[in-house]
Structures
1.
Amino acid sequence: MYYLITLLVYGAVDAIACLGLSQQFGVAGVTNFGFIIFQAVGAYVAAVLALPPDTANGGFQIYVGGLNLPFPVPWIGAAVAGALLALPFTFLVGRRLRGDFAAVGLLVTAVLLNLLATNYRQLFNGDAGVSLVPAPLAAQRSMFVTTSNAYQYEFAAGAILLAAVVYLFVRRITESPYGRTLRAMRDNDKVADSLGKNLLSLRTGAMVVGGAIAGLSGGILVSFIGVWSPAAWSYAETIVLFTAVIIGGAGNHRGAVLGAILVPVGFEEITRFITNNNPSLPPNLLPSLQWVAIGLLIVVFLWARPQGVLPERKRVIPPPPTLAQRMLHRVPGQDVSRVRQRTKPPAPGSAAAASEAGSPVRSRRSRYPRPTGDGPEILQAIGVSKDFGGVHAVSGVSISVRRGTLTGLIGPNGAGKSTLLSLLAGTEKVSAGKIIYQGRDITALPAYRRARTGLVRTFQLASEFKRLTVLENLLTADPANRGDSFLGAAAGRRYWLADEARAVDRARALIDSFGLTANANDYAGDLSGGQRRLVEIMRALMSEPDMLLLDEPMAGVHPELARKIGDALRGLCQDGMTILMVEHELAIMDEFCEPVIVMADGGVLAEGTMTELRDRTEVVEAYLVG
Amino acid sequence: MSAEGPERQAALYADGVTAGYGADPVIRGVSVRAEPGEVVSVVGPNGSGKSTLLKALIGVLRVSAGQVRVGDRDVTNLAPEEMARAGVGYVPQVDDVFAPLTVRENLEMGGYLLHHRQLPERIEHVLAVFPRLGTMLRRPAGKLSGGERKMLAMGRVLMLRPAVFLLDEPTANLAPAIARSILDEQVKRLAEHGAAVLIVEQRARAVLAVSDRTYVLGGGELRMEGTPAELANSPAFVLSFLGGHRDQARPGG
Amino acid sequence: MRGKDMSLFVASVGFGLITSAVLAIAALGFTLQFAVTDVLNLAFAAVMTLAGFVAYWVNNAGLSVWLGLVVSMAVGSLVSVLLNYFVYSPFQRRGSAPITLVIVSLGMALIIEFGVAAIVGGVNVSYAMSQGSTLRLGGMTLTTVQLTIIAISLVVMAGVHALLRYTKLGKAMRATAANRTLARNCGIRASRVIAVTWALTGALCGLAGTVFAIDIGSFDPFSTDLFLILILAAVFLGGPGNAYGAMLGALVIGLATEISAGLPFIQADYKYVVAFVALLAMLAVRPTGLLGART
């Protein structure tokens, strides 16, 4: 029976560790090859918090601490230690370091720390490790009791209970808007950045949470087996956990638990079974073959089924209840009078739909204060220049965009249009000049800050979050969701449900008005090129911008669809939004944009309606001369 | 045939080529041809698929429909290294030199398919065409200026004496004087020595001046074709740059 | 410095040179694999182990360990080519992210290293060979074998330099590493160049494995684990993908490691800490390394 207990406890501990890794790696996309050191530090800290001073027990061990604290302090300390250890390593995952380089750095750290622990005896008794770690509540009960069956069962039950708690906690975080933001960062961190997500803090959070969970698992483990030495946490143990998570299904927490059962526990059992039935095998053979099997499993699974046994589930947001249902069960956050207004879904592309999309269901209060200027010009560039290593992409450009206009920005290749847009949006820093928005000088403001003040841009290249649905893509851009922070997520569903429902409503309205209702719950990566463009635009609209900077929104879009987009954009402007749009397709400019600014060779050439510009020879020449 | 021209002359034919990245094709049913001794240009507004066409011809992109021939030989979807062996030289718009290698080594790479005994003579010839390069043989290509890089890129291709030259916007980001020199002198010279030159350009006016024939691409399709004289006087030509066919009231693709 | 410290220091320099010599061979192989294929091949140390044991089996059969060295080079070459052909290339053609390739390489490291362990068991082995006579050079005491190792390393470095600078293949390798598409436009069959690169670097890997085993005397299947860290430190210090950076990094890391071991206030076991700190510092501050990116 002791055997079953051991199985249960190890299962629980491994499940907890795998859940932490699944959260870090599967959800947030942080590849932490040093994961095991967080479990190790938790185990060590729990040990030295529970142990008496090292002079006790004959003084054969040397270690720091020895505070002899009662349960549950050691376990709490373990989790805290794991969390704190994560902080110094943000320099490896926070920066724009290549993913594989960062992972190697963490792997090396694991080896290094193991080496230090082995050699620096004063810390944790070196190679021999710490032993005689008292079991929880051992002081309250005599030592003999802790080896009794009843106690063992209680311990196992406690461990499993904790595993369940961790599972629920991790699930709560992942299924929240914050979890969605983590997944978005995993899919495309640059775009997440431009949407205003603070990558450094998100990744730090993932490291800290994962570290705390790993630390807790270490604390439980050391309290059970009573010893902990460097041999128990070689860097290869991290690989076992990664294998478990990959096989179980990265990004799926049930998969993580399944992986924990299959790999660390399953392997042990198969080994034990084989050893018991074949006592004549050389002692080192099986452990080695175990490792070979793990290596094979990693490679085979990454090739044949990288999503794991239980792949990440698609988050389907069910369609809104009918009006009758709504009136019956008052769905929180729904204003019934508004619901009445929408009994008839608007025809796609119509002005009504566009105005609905444009006159947004304003969220309660934007999290970030928005400047409101007056004056006819919402955005100005004054003498703006940008050099890339000697090449003057933009030189001395001064433009102003009038409020409420759909302004076009055109010019031949190399004219500097996209660069100017990037400078206005903040994705690039100016080499000289100033940018004034709503009367404020925003030249020094980075892109994500500008986004928060209502100046939002879209990108030319593919920038949707592929493994999020269309609805989720839009929801990531919602700036005012209370659930989009760690604390908000931890507070639970009820805390952010109202904000979320509001955001879903707005998202659905946008999706309806752009005609993509049927695709609302499809993965964005599965859509056609033109549809993905729409997602891009809709996502930009979700943050309720005051001014939109569009970078070639019609590129690769079917003519009729381009028309619809143009209509929708014009509708938005009629409702007060300002749009600056870079485009190559000049017929679009004709139909929708006024005024149109022409750039060539890094400077502004002319401004006017498309008709006027076509008659001006210097504009014609600029296009033909290139 | 002079010692300067291609080893073997051949024409380039592309018939009904459709190609793109992933599911949606960027160019559809495009047919162009370039005969030995001709400078043929492909112009058009941005997003019309000019670069895509060249990449499809050289084997960097997959051709999903249509045929590409060099002379009599079908070279559709042939790998780029085999295209080089078939006598097609390609100068890309960006990443056109081996930055960490010296100028001389870049030229040697251009002559990779040659026997090593032929190398010194070929290098000398290329340096005669681009004397400036001769002063910087030991310099890493990454340290060259824009104009010098383009010269090196063209010199690299010249090493092979290909029958067909594919040039992707060779004057992009170059100062007008150097651009003019590249078009008026270098490109013309290639054709004079018997190569077939297909050149994609943004600077329509400038390249028209050196072309024998011009194709106008728009929205991934061939819109117009003709001699510079015919095109320069056609209002439709100007319009195709500045807004497509207005009477059809169609925003382009 | 006092006399005893001085001689300790000089002795450390001697050890450092040998470590640098072994490290240079390994780091060159590793960095060239990365330059041409863009894969951080963490299975490199495992293949070194395999090669070291192959030499041992040859040696055990009664033949000279130097013959075993040649055989181990062939084995290292073959295994590396197969590794790239059957594992890394298919994943890359599928468009797998670099991080996936690293995890795969870790998996392969496990398979190879523990595969050897399964066959061999956990025992320490050593080659049956004479260390040759000892020589005193300016305060350093080196055996003939150690000098041979240093000589081999210098030959390898000179050879790689000559290959990369003066031969057509070497320049094709550098071209493929710098711009694979452009290399193909020149008519270079990039996939062949890559296969040859793996064959050559695999031979270096095998050579490094045997020389490493000769140097440390007694070894087991896990002796190269820590050495991989030194390789990574040398490679990243000099700049990943840069052959001359690998040589420089090997010299610096090798010397720094041994000299720190010789310093009076640092315990011998901590000598690897220098390498780790260097690696982490480079990643944090200058990931392109001292000499910058690919040669």
2.
Amino acid sequence: MSGTSGSVGLSTTVELKGHLIDSLTLSKVIDVVQQLGGDYHLNDIRVGSLKKDISSINMTLMAPNQQVMAQLMEAITPYGAVPGDQDEPEILTCEQDGQLPKAAYSVKLPQRVHHRGEWVPVQNGGAWALILEQGQARMKPVSELRQGDVLISGTHGLQW
Amino acid sequence: MSSLSSAKTWTSPVGVTPFSKSGKPTILMCPPTYFTVAYAINPWMEEAPPCDEALAKRQWENLYKAITEQGGADVVLLEPVDGLPDLVFTANAAFVYNNTAVIAHYKHAERRAEEPVCAEWFEKQGFNVVRMPDHIFFEGAGDALTWQDRVFAGYKTRTDIASHSLLTAATDLPVLSMELINPRYYHIDVCLCPLADGHLIYSPDAFDEYGRAVIEANVPKDKLIPVSAEEAARFACNAVNVNDTVIFNQGSGQLTDDLKARGFNVVQVDLSEFLKSGGSSKCLTLRVG
């Protein structure tokens, strides 16, 4: 079963387990995905035969871009969705200071806030990239990226 | 006035526990010796004026009397611990069914020191103690309430939905996972309460359309008692039901009338000092037998 909304650019697999049917959790997840501009395909559904049985679902999530995919994952994680694959993310290297490679994962934060009639700049707003550094992952402003920084690409191997 | 049909058909919401031998409902409470509003982990605490601890002790004693004298229940006590002000809210200690106690694993670090205290108490009473994995939060009977043969369980604000599968594995009870959408109703026991004979009171505003649909699909219309937003904000849904007596904070006239019309005895107790902490009568109790 698939939804019909939105254009498809990225896809990832997620799994849901729990009391999904009687609690209307699956309906809620599908509605949230579509409301946020994503799409889905149900790859595998196992519905428990007794009320106490746990159901499990494997679904492919589709989104037109990374930002929507991140929103989808953030929105459905509280309903128990976990990444369906255990792949590690693809890695890119920053080739020029302050420049984000096109396929790198990034998050855009607001740059100004309208406050008391004026647009106040957000001090740490703008684009942030996800980097790996000495075995740790952290967000770094794109303007502070340095050549050689190790960047995450895509949405595989990420958990919200 | 109709009378409750439950007098003979009442089944314990906690099944058969180590406390069932007495034949009377048994409730766990913890004296408010060290109770105060010491930190803010819910909207009620954030807005709370200073707590009158002496008044809180008198209010707790009035609740104790209502439960034992008017409700006819036995009360067993958990020893209070200095530095654990919220231990008084025993509803959160665990979810109890038959001889199993699924111990809370709190979302907020402020309450985690309560976990070993409660686990030790349940072990001493002869319960099979089940603990949640470290990465899954579950706040006991604050977020899991047995109605008939199933459990209405809240999630998102405090409890993780992943705990619901583990609750079923531990107790063999089916769970209805209910998203809590209003931060003021951070546990399901402040917005929904199963009562004797299949009745259920709830605040429709605390749930989204999916949650309301789940409630309506499970509970027959004539057993469902919606509570107004005004009365829910006075913790009317945070009620203790013992036999045919229902005990809750004072000031909920409509719910009182609705329950009396169904044959319940209603007792209102002033619990103003505990409301400052985001809890009321149900939060101060845990049915253990």
